[in-house]
Design goal:
Distance between the termini: 22 Å
Helix content: 40-55%
Low-confidence stretches: none
Shape: globular
Strand content: under 5%
Radius of gyration: 12 Å
Oligomer: single chain
Largest sheet: none
Number of strands: 0
Order of helices and strands: HHHH
Length: about 70
């Protein structure tokens, strides 16, 4: 999903680089949050990607708050 939104190969996206560094804008961020919600049947704040701006931080946030893992 992320690589498609950013229009770049997944291998070129680092988990610890803010998605905005790759050009993710607010519209794409909100759409990506919606896709994550639908895929995992969870509810996220629309501004989440500004609070946890990297893929690694997003995964850790979801593991702790939605999937019961202590990352």
């Amino acid at each position: 999903e992320v690589s498609r939104r950013l229009n770049m190969p997944a291998d070129d996206i680092s988990g610890h680089t803010p998605l905005t560094d790759y050009g993710l804008d607010s519209m794409n961020a909100m759409e990506l949050v919606g896709e994550i919600e639908a895929k995992f049947d969870i509810q996220l704040d629309p501004t989440l990607l500004w609070e946890v701006p990297t893929i690694d931080e997003l995964v850790e946030f979801c593991e702790i708050h939605y999937f019961g893992n202590d990352a």
